[in-house]
Amino acid sequence: MTTDTTTLPDADDDTTRRRFRMPRLLGSATDITAILILIVIVFAVLDPRSFFTPQNFTQILINAALLLVMAVGATFVLITGGVDLSVGSVLVFSGVIAGKVMEWFGSAGWGASIAGIGAALLAGTAWGCVNGLVITKLRVPPLIATLGSYGAAQGLAQIITNGNDMKNIPTELVDTIGFGRIAGIPILVIIAVLVAVIGGLILWATRYGQRTYAVGSNAEAARRAGINVDRHLLKVYAIAGMLAGLAGILSYAKFGTTTLAGHATDNLNVIAAVVIGGTSLFGGVGTMIGTVVGTLIPATLANGLVIVGLNSFWRDFAVGIVLVAAVYLDQLRRRSRK
Question: Rounded to an integer, what distance in angstroms lies between the CA atom of residue 290 and that of residue 276?
Answer without folding.
Answer: 8
